[in-house]
């Protein structure tokens, strides 16, 4: 049954010039592109054809059952069943399901996945559609998950170890503190004691009968939806749903699906928790209320008003963090669901050490300021401009939106009743509703949000001598002191000067070269800079760019390096030209542009992007970041305070200690490869950083600029000549300097003993020389992917010793051509050596016997399928054009990745 958006009809934008207000009582529309229906057994389905990317479809099975439905004997079993879906079904014995999907190019974890939360379980399956058999099998897999899991004793026991390792991996200060604060936040409800992962005791001791009982009770068609979005015939998809799911029936004794409420409470609740391994201090105020449906245009409009309020308050919080004496490191306000039946208005701050009460005071003071004086007209104008710009860009991309961006909206519609009007109706509703939102109604909302009831205040942080957390009584007193206190009105300081006061004297393009094989145009500019342009049609409203030049911090002296290692961040915190960072953000309201300078160890540059409509602004910002970096002592001090606040207790985290040891070991203790910590930030010097930044960006002559996206060379050329060819050039031709960082030779073993949990982390790092050519790099990548498959099978599936082994790789051209291949896994400490031995056994097996053809086919298919989708991404092209250019490779090879995959042997 196809359901059209009958109640509320909009013209296909942008035709609505009159901007008539829709009736607020009308139902919010459902995207007319979707075919939605319900089978006789109660199963819902959503089907939307979408051709981006071609020959792919995103499948979801949404089950309206999560951990909140578990009884005391079933803690963690909703999530455990999600695991069992990959370990034997009616049509796929044991691990055959994963093997089959890998054989058709679907990667386990990266593509094939699932998640379990308090309220739902969702299975994720993207598959190719250029084979009718693969499509049919994909729908069969969904049906098997829904009603055909075998749940055998043997496989349950095999998976028990894997899930315990997932529990173990999540253990740490954050989890320990959350387990103490959830019972306060969700007191009186099952949410307080039903964390999806369960407990170690429950995972070790549950019975198979209790697991099967959960599956029987809650995996039934009236609690399920199938969502299909992609390059598929809707009629074919609907027929497959009816064929595969039509015979499913709920058990006769199926219990009703309860709606779990969080009881209201008159008295405020407080919780203050510390942990010796916590790294940051935070405070949170939540004003709770029952979740409200979003069914009508009035509900949609309410969400718009709330979003504008949050955006304006968050802008004020961000402005505060840019002051040297900011009472918090970061802060935000948000209105949204905490769990299915509960919404909260939340004020949250990351506080400085010993600074919970000043942070809480500031959060509440800003809320009081808005309550007493409201926002300003200029703030609302900027917030509206930003919102409408985002909606306009989404509408512009309506034909280019990828299926993965769409599918989860229908999952949310099924599970939570979230509206899915589609990009056209959303665009028209925003255009009709946003201009009518008044300052008074946003200010009225602000006055209503801070209530005396249903209030929860949580604080947590390090358990540390000399930095005690405040008591609950002290938090209550702070709240009482600020509530109702008279505060001054906010003053909106806006710069009226233009972004670029004087137009630069344009240079020119002096030569042009085209590479028709990949559709690029390369220009040499009069100042020596190069520009590479690749027009695409992958996105309608996206242009990405990166500029780069060799050198980086390698060219800083050893004496200067500590003071300038964060030069780009230190300097850019001050803004550009005549505007500080806050003024710049305000000036750019409603513009879709992003420009971020960087200085790495071997190069300097700028990255970012924006909308084709805002290209001139983008180029002005690029020009200013070269010619007018802004020294701002207050901004630099604020940046330093913020970063030191975030990093001060970093060493308390055992995982940070482990990563730091790895970093130091792999660089043999080199001074330029020391861990990033509070001492790194404290060493930064604004004057020296500004001088180094200016030196790195003073000569554009050896820079290369790469632009990819919805832009034509003829429209870009005038901007290039005006803003890039006019950049200063000194004729330098630099290269990065070899600073002597090298990995150790031979076998090195390091042991880090930190932490209170029964948990270990292991990294095996392999390094060596490599000829950095496309074929050799592809060989390393293929080996890494093969080893990922083999170690997942050995360490996870066969031994049950870890949740998710990870294999990653990298290659470097400078200072020498070299590779690194890392194997990482977490486990119980007493099993780490066993898993190391098993890892080396798999490596030796590949070296001595080669890889099984079935596994090689998995690697080939995954690479071939990934190439098909990657070649339709602007980011992929930008990354590869830059990579190939800096390595001196022929960029015409980029589209041949699929051909390289066929050579994997």
UniProtKB/TrEMBL annotation:
Under Gene Ontology molecular function, one entry of this record is: metalloendopeptidase activity
Keyword Metal-binding, does the record have it?
Answer: yes
Q: Required co-factor? A: Zn(2+)
> What does UniProt give as the signal peptide span?
1-17
| Keyword Signal found | yes
One Gene Ontology biological process: proteolysis
InterPro entries in the record:
Metalloenz_LuxS/M16, Pept_M16_N, Pept_M16_Zn_BS, Peptidase_M16, Peptidase_M16_C
Instruction: Domain (Peptidase M16 N-terminal): give its ranges.
Output: 50-166
In what residue span(s) does the Peptidase M16 C-terminal domain sit? 206-387, 690-862
Q: Under which EC number(s) is this enzyme classified?
A: 3.4.99.-
User: What's in the keyword line of the UniProt record?
Assistant: Hydrolase, Metal-binding, Metalloprotease, Protease, Signal, Zinc
> What family, per the record?
Belongs to the peptidase M16 family.
The name this protein goes by in its record: Probable zinc protease pqqL
């Amino acid at each position: 049954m196809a359901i059209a958006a009958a109640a509320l009809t909009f013209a296909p934008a942008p035709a609505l010039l009159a901007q008539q207000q829709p009736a607020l009582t009308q139902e919010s529309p459902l995207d007319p592109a979707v075919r939605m229906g319900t089978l006789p057994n109660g199963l819902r389905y959503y089907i939307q054809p979408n051709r981006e990317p071609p020959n792919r479809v995103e499948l979801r099975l949404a089950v309206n059952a999560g951990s909140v439905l578990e009884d005391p004997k079933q803690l963690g079993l909703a999530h455990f069943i999600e695991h069992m879906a990959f370990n034997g079904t009616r049509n796929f014995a044991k691990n055959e399901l994963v093997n089959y999907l890998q054989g058709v190019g679907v990667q386990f974890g990266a593509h094939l996945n699932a998640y379990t939360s308090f309220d739902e379980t969702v299975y994720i399956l993207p598959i190719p559609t250029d084979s009718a058999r693969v499509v049919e099998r994909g729908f069969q897999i969904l049906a098997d998950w829904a009603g055909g899991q075998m749940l055998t004793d043997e496989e349950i026991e095999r998976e028990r170890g894997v899930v315990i390792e997932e529990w173990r991996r999540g253990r740490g200060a954050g989890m320990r503190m959350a387990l103490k604060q959830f019972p306060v936040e969700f007191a009186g409800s099952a949410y307080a004691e039903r964390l999806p992962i369960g407990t170690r005791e429950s995972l070790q001791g549950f019975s198979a009968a209790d697991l099967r009982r959960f599956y029987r009770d809650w995996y039934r068609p009236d609690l399920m939806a199938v969502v299909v979005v992609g390059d598929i015939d809707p009629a074919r998809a609907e027929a497959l749903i009816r064929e595969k799911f039509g015979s499913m029936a709920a058990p006769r004794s199926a219990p009703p699906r309860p709606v779990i409420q969080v009881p209201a409470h008159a008295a405020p609740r407080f919780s203050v928790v510390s942990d010796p391994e916590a790294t940051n201090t935070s405070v949170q105020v939540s004003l709770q209320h029952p979740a409200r449906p979003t069914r009508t245009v009035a509900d949609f409009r309410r969400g718009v008003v709330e979003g504008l309020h949050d955006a304006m308050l968050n802008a004020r919080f961000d402005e505060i963090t840019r002051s040297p004496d900011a009472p918090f490191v970061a802060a935000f306000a948000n209105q949204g669901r905490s769990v299915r039946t509960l919404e909260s208005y939340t004020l949250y701050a990351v506080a400085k050490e010993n600074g919970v009460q000043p942070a809480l005071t500031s959060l509440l003071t800003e809320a009081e300021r808005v309550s007493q004086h409201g926002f300003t007209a200029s703030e609302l104008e900027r917030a509206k401009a930003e919102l409408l710009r985002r909606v306009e860009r989404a509408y512009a991309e309506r034909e280019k939106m990828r299926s993965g961006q769409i599918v989860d909206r229908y999952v949310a519609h099924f599970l939570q009743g979230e509206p899915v009007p589609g990009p056209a109706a959303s665009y028209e509703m925003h255009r009709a509703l946003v201009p009518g939102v008044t300052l008074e109604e946003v200010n009225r909302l602000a006055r209503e949000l801070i209530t005396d009831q249903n209030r929860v205040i949580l604080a947590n942080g390090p358990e540390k001598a000399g930095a005690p957390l405040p008591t609950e009584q002290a938090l209550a007193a702070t709240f009482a002191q600020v509530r109702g206190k008279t505060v001054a009105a906010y003053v909106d300081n806006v710069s009226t000067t233009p972004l670029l006061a004087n137009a630069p004297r344009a240079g020119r393009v002096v030569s042009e070269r085209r590479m028709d094989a990949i559709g690029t145009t390369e220009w040499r500019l009069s100042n020596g800079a190069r520009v590479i342009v690749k027009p695409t049609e992958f996105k309608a409203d996206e242009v990405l760019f990166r500029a780069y030049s060799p050198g980086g911090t390698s060219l800083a002296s050893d004496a200067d390096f500590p003071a300038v290692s964060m030069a780009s961040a230190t300097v850019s915190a001050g803004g550009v030209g005549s505007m500080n960072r806050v003024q710049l953000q305000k000036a750019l309201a409603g513009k879709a542009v992003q420009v971020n300078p960087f200085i790495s160890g071997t190069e300097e540059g700028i990255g970012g992007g924006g909308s084709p409509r805002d290209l001139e602004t983008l180029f002005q910002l690029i020009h200013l970041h070269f010619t007018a970096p802004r020294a701002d002592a207050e901004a630099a001090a604020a940046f330093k305070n913020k970063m030191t606040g975030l990093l001060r207790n970093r060493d308390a985290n055992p995982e940070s200690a482990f990563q730091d040891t790895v970093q130091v070991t792999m660089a043999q203790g080199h001074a330029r490869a020391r861990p990033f910590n509070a001492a790194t930030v404290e060493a930064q010097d604004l004057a020296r950083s500004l001088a180094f930044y200016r030196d790195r960006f003073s000569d554009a002559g050896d820079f290369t600029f790469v632009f990819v996206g919805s832009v034509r060379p003829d429209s870009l050329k005038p901007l290039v000549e005006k803003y890039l060819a006019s950049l200063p050039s000194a004729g330098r031709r630099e290269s990065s300097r070899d600073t002597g960082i090298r990995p150790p030779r031979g076998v090195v073993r390091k042991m880090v003993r930190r932490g209170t949990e029964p948990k270990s982390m292991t990294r095996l790092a392999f390094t060596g020389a490599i000829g950095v050519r496309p074929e050799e790099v592809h060989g390393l990548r293929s080996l890494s992917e093969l080893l990922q498959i083999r170690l997942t099978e050995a360490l996870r599936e066969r031994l049950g010793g870890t949740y998710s082994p990870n294999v990653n790789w990298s290659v470097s051209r400078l200072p020498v051509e070299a590779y690194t291949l890392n194997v990482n896994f977490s486990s119980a400490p007493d099993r780490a050596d066993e898993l190391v031995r098993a890892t080396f056994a798999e490596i030796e097996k590949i070296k001595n016997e080669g890889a099984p053809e079935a596994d090689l086919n998995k690697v080939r298919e995954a690479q071939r399928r990934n190439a098909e989708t990657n070649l339709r991404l602007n980011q992929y092209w930008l990354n590869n054009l830059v990579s190939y250019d800096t390595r001196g490779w022929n960029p015409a090879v980029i589209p041949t990745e699929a051909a390289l995959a066929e050579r994997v042997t």
